[in-house]
Amino acid sequence: MPPIRQLEPVRGFEVRRVQPFEAVKRYVCGGCGGSIEAGTGHVVAVPIDAPDLRRHWHWGCWQARDRRRPLG
After folding, report:
1. How far apart are CA 56 and CA 24, in angstroms?
2. Which of the residues in the chain have pLDDT under 70?
């Protein structure tokens, strides 16, 4: 069985893993803009001061967030 991936705390955000059974719809990744299909485990990041700006991320995109250019 693969190890459970740990999430590092991020200042100003509540970050949690979304298990595949919890992902009941398609999301757009906040990192790459690609699709996160229903049933796919991923990460959700919620700004503490602006919870309405939460974003869902592919695991790999979240891990690489400091190395990628911003969308847009």
Report:
1. 13
2. 1-9, 68-72
